[in-house]
C-alpha cells in the first residue's frame, strides 16, 4: 500500500475518460514535467486537458468553500471519467478574452494599475488625494464631462428625425423611440399631433418634441387590460437620447443597438480631459515631470527605466513591485504594449501572455498549469522565449500541461502524448505516449510532420499590379510605403508587435474597405446556434423531413413546434438553489435530445431529426444526397471540419474552427480581397496543408489573399512576403523585406528569414 501511494504522488492517473469524443481512455501523466498534448484538430486534446482534468480539479476545489461562496462561482458538472487519482489544483491559462468593457486595460488586467495609482497618491506633486483620485473608474478621479470614458459622443440631432414622417409612423429614426413603450411618450403628448408630419410642426411644437416642455409634464398611458394608467415624466427626444445612450458606456448594450446609436453620433476625444478620462486634479499631479497618463501610455519597456529612477523613500518599494509585474511582461514578449491598451483590442495570444504574467511570479508549487496553445499568434523568436518560461515554471516544482502543435514546443517537452489517430469519432484514443526521441520514429500523423522539412515555394505566382499604401503611420508604423500585390497569396510576417496587424487590418482595410476580413470572432454564443443553422443547411434538412412526412417544417426545429415542452429545446434544465450554485441536469423528458416525441416520431431514410443532427459532417455527406445540403457540407469538409456534428453548438468552437467555418462560405467566390488574421491558429501541420490548398483555390479564382501569419509552414508557401520589424512596439513598424520566400532566406536582418533558413528546404 505504501508503494502504491508513492506512485500516486509521482503521476496523475486518469481512468476511463470519455468526455466528448474520448473513448474511455486510461492515461498516466507524469508530475513535475513539461507535457505536450499533440494531435490533429478535433482529436480530443482539449477534451482531455480542459473538459476533464481542469474541470474536475476546479469542481473538487470548489467543494472546500462554503455554500454561500460556491453560489457565486461558476458551476462545474463532474466530467465523464471513472476516476482521477493524485489530482493537483489546476490553473488554466487560455486565450479567452477578459471581457468587453471599454474600461478594462492591460494595467488593470495585470494588477499594475492600482499600484501606480497608489504610487502617485504617495509621491505625486501636487497631490490629488488617495489612490482612487487617480482612477477614471471612480467618481473621485474621473472626468466630470465624459465620466471617465475619455471620449465624447456628439449627437447629430437631425439624424433622429424624418420630416416626412409622423410620430406615429416613421417620424423618429431610432428603434427605441419607435416601437417600444418609449414611443408613447411622444404619441401621448397632448400638445403634439401624432399624425401630423414633422415638417408641418410649428416652432413651439418643434421645441416641445426636440427639447421638452418648459414646465414638468406627465404623460399617462394604459399599462394593462384593466385600464390602469402608467404615469411617465415627459422628456424631449434630444435630452432623452443623450441621457440614455450617450452619457453611459454603451459597450454593455446589444451589438445591434450599439451600431444603431453610433449612426446618430460623432465620436471623438473628450475635450475637457483630452481623452484621458481623468479630472484636472489627477492630470496636474506629477512624478519627475510625468503625470499618471504618461505612465500608462508609454510602452512597458520604456516605463521600466522611468520607474527605476524613482528614489523617493516613500515610493521606492512600490516602484519595485510595479517593475516586477512589468519585467514579466517583457519576459513573455509583450513589452511593446502600454498599460492603457484596452483589453478588448488584444489578440488571443496577447491575452494568454498577460494571463501568464499573473502566474509567473507565484510562489505556489505542485500546481498543474494547463496552457492552450501558448505559441499561437507568436513568431518563432517569441515562441522560443515562451518555451524558456514554461521550463522555468516546471523547474519551480510544477506540472506543466500544454495543448500544442508547435514543433518548437515539442522539442522542449519531457513527455509527449498524442491523441488521434484522426478527428471527431475517428479520434479520442492515445496513439503515442513517450519522449520526443520516440516520437521521431513513430508512425503517427504528428511524428510524420516532425520528420518533414518545411518546403519553400519553388514557383511563386508573378504579379504586376498591387495596392499601394503610402505614409502608413497607424500605431507603431513609421510612415512606411509598401505595395500589396493583387491576385496572389501574400504573407505579412514579423515578431509580435512589429506592425503586421496595423498594416493589414487597419491601413490596408482603411484604403480597401471592400476587403473581406475573416477573423476568429465568435459566430454565435447561444446553445441554439449550430453549424447546420449557420450554414443554412438546417432549413434544407427541415424541408426534407417535412416533405417526407407531410407535415410542417416547424416540427423539426427545437426552437419551434418540435421543441421539448419541458426544456424548451435546450436539452438541459437549470435549477436555482437557495444556498448553493445552480444545478444543470439533463432534461428527463427528452433525455437531452431537445425534441418532443411527436417530432422524433417522424423519420427520413430511417433516422429521426435528432439522429440526423448527431451525424458528423462527413457522415451527413453520405446520408444526404440532395445537392442543396451537400454543397455547404462539402465546403465545411474542404476546410477540415468534417469531424464536427451538425448539431454542435457554435459557442463550443475554438477561434481557429470559427475562422474556418467563415472561410467555408467564401470558397466559391471570385474577384474579392480576403484578409485572414492568423488562420493557422489551432491547426496541426496536416491541417495547414488543407488550409494552403484552400487559399490556393481562392487565388486561382482571381481573388487576392493576404494573411497575417507566423507559422513557417504557411509562410514558406506564399507567393510574396512582407516582413515587418525588426522588433515589437517602438522598435518595430518598419518594412524589413518584400519579396519571394526563396529570397527571404538571404535577408540577414529578418528573424523570419533566419528561422525559415534553419527549418526550410528548397526543392
Structure, briefly:
The chain is α/β, with parallel strands linked by helices.
Walkthrough of the structure:
- The protein is an alpha/beta fold.
- The chain folds into 5 domains: about 1-95 and about 345-450, 3-Layer(aba) Sandwich (Rossmann fold); about 105-150 and about 270-330, ABC transporter ATPase  like domain (ABC transporter ATPase like fold), CATH 1.20.1580; about 155-270, ABC transporter ATPase domain-like (Helicase, Ruva Protein, domain 3, Orthogonal Bundle); about 455-525 and about 665-760, 3-Layer(aba) Sandwich (Rossmann fold); about 530-650, Up-down Bundle (ABC transporter ATPase like fold), CATH 1.20.1580.
- Helices cover about 35% and strands about 15% of the residues.
- The chain is built from 30 helices and 29 strands.
- The strands form 10 sheets. The chain has a 6-stranded mixed β-sheet, sandwiched between helices. The protein has a 6-stranded mixed β-sheet with strand order 20-25-26-19-27-28, with helices on both faces.
- Helix 5 (about 110-125) packs antiparallel against helix 13 (about 315-330).
- The longest helix has 19 residues, at about 315-330.
- The protein is globular, with a radius of gyration of 29 Å.
- The N and C termini lie far apart (about 60 Å).
Amino acid at each position: 500500500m505504501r508503494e502504491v501511494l508513492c506512485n500516486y504522488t509521482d503521476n496523475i492517473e486518469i481512468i476511463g475518460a470519455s468526455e466528448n469524443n474520448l473513448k474511455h481512455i486510461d492515461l498516466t501523466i507524469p508530475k513535475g514535467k513539461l507535457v505536450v498534448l499533440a494531435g490533429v484538430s478535433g482529436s480530443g486534446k482539449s477534451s482531455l486537458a480542459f473538459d476533464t482534468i481542469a474541470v474536475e480539479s476546479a469542481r473538487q476545489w470548489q467543494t472546500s468553500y462554503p455554500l454561500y461562496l460556491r453560489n457565486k462561482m461558476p458551476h462545474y458538472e463532474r466530467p465523464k471519467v471513472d476516476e482521477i487519482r493524485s489530482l493537483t489544483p489546476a490553473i488554466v491559462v487560455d486565450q479567452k478574452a477578459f471581457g468587453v468593457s471599454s474600461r478594462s486595460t492591460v494595467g488593470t488586467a495585470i494588477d499594475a494599475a492600482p499600484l501606480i495609482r497608489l504610487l502617485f497618491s504617495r509621491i505625486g506633486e501636487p497631490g490629488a488625494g488617495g489612490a482612487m483620485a487617480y482612477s477614471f473608474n471612480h467618481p473621485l478621479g474621473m472626468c466630470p464631462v465624459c465620466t471617465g470614458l475619455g471620449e465624447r459622443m456628439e449627437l447629430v440631432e437631425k439624424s433622429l428625425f424624418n420630416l416626412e414622417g409622423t410620430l406615429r409612423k416613421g417620424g423618429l429614426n431610432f428603434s427605441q423611440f419607435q416601437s417600444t413603450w418609449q414611443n408613447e411618450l411622444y404619441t401621448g403628448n397632448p400638445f403634439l399631433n401624432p399624425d401630423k408630419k414633422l415638417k408641418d410642426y410649428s416652432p413651439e411644437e418643434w421645441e416641445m418634441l426636440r427639447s421638452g416642455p418648459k414646465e414638468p409634464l406627465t404623460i399617462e398611458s394604459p399599462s394593462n387590460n384593466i385600464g390602469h394608467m402608467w404615469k411617465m415624466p415627459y422628456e424631449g427626444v434630444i435630452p432623452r437620447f443623450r441621457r440614455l445612450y450617450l452619457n453611459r458606456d454603451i459597450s454593455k448594450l446589444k451589438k445591434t443597438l450599439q451600431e444603431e446609436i453610433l449612426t446618430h453620433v460623432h465620436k471623438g476625444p473628450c475635450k475637457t480631459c483630452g481623452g484621458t478620462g481623468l479630472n484636472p486634479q489627477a492630470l496636474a499631479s506629477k512624478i519627475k515631470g510625468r503625470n499618471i497618463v504618461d505612465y500608462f501610455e508609454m510602452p512597458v519597456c520604456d516605463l521600466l527605466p522611468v520607474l527605476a529612477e524613482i528614489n523617493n523613500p516613500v515610493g521606492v518599494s512600490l516602484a519595485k513591485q510595479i517593475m516586477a509585474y512589468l519585467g514579466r511582461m517583457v519576459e513573455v514578449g509583450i513589452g511593446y504594449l502600454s498599460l492603457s491598451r484596452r483589453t478588448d483590442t488584444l489578440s488571443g495570444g496577447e491575452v494568454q501572455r498577460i494571463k501568464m504574467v499573473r502566474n509567473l511570479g507565484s510562489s505556489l508549487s505542485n500546481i498543474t498549469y494547463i496552457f492552450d496553445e501558448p505559441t499561437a499568434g507568436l513568431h518563432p523568436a517569441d515562441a522560443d522565449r515562451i518555451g524558456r518560461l514554461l521550463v522555468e515554471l516546471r523547474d519551480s516544482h510544477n506540472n506543466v500541461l500544454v495543448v500544442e502543435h508547435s514543433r518548437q514546443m515539442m522539442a522542449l517537452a519531457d513527455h509527449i502524448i498524442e491523441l488521434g489517430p484522426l478527428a471527431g469519432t475517428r479520434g479520442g484514443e492515445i496513439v503515442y505516449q513517450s519522449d520526443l526521441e520516440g516520437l521521431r520514429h513513430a508512425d503517427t500523423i504528428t511524428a510524420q510532420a516532425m520528420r518533414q522539412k518545411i518546403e519553400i515555394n519553388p514557383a511563386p505566382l508573378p504579379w504586376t499590379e498591387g495596392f499601394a499604401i503610402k505614409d502608413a503611420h497607424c500605431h507603431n508604423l513609421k510612415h512606411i510605403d509598401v505595395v500589396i500585390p493583387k491576385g496572389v497569396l501574400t504573407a505579412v510576417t514579423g515578431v509580435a508587435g512589429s506592425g503586421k496587424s496595423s498594416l493589414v487590418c487597419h491601413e490596408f482595410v482603411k484604403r480597401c474597405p471592400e476587403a473581406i476580413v475573416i477573423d476568429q470572432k465568435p459566430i454565435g454564443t447561444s446553445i441554439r446556434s449550430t453549424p447546420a443553422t449557420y450554414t443554412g443547411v438546417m432549413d434544407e434538412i427541415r424541408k426534407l423531413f417535412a416533405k417526407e412526412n407531410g407535415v410542417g417544417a416547424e416540427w423539426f426545429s427545437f426552437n419551434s413546434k418540435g421543441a421539448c415542452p419541458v426544456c424548451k429545446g435546450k436539452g438541459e434544465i437549470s435549477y436555482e438553489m437557495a444556498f448553493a450554485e445552480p444545478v444543470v441536469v439533463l432534461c428527463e423528458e427528452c433525455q437531452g435530445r431537445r425534441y418532443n416525441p411527436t417530432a422524433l416520431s417522424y423519420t427520413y431514410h430511417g433516422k429521426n431529426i435528432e439522429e440526423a443532427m448527431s451525424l458528423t459532417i462527413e457522415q451527413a455527406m453520405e446520408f444526404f444526397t440532395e445537392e442543396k445540403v451537400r454543397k455547404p457540407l462539402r465546403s465545411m469538409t474542404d476546410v477540415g471540419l468534417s469531424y464536427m456534428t451538425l448539431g454542435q453548438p457554435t459557442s463550443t468552437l475554438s477561434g481557429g474552427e470559427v475562422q474556418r467555418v467563415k472561410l467555408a462560405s467564401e470558397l466559391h467566390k471570385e474577384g474579392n480581397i480576403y484578409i485572414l488574421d492568423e488562420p493557422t491558429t489551432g491547426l496541426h501541420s496536416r491541417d495547414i496543408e488543407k488550409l494552403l490548398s484552400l487559399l490556393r483555390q481562392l487565388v486561382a479564382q482571381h481573388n487576392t489573399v493576404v494573411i497575417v501569419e507566423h507559422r513557417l509552414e504557411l509562410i514558406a508557401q506564399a507567393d510574396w512576403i512582407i516582413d515587418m520589424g525588426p522588433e515589437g512596439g517602438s522598435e518595430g513598424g518598419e518594412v524589413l523585406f518584400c519579396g519571394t520566400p526563396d529570397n527571404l532566406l538571404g535577408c540577414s536582418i529578418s528573424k523570419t528569414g533566419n528561422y525559415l533558413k534553419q527549418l526550410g528546404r528548397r526543392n
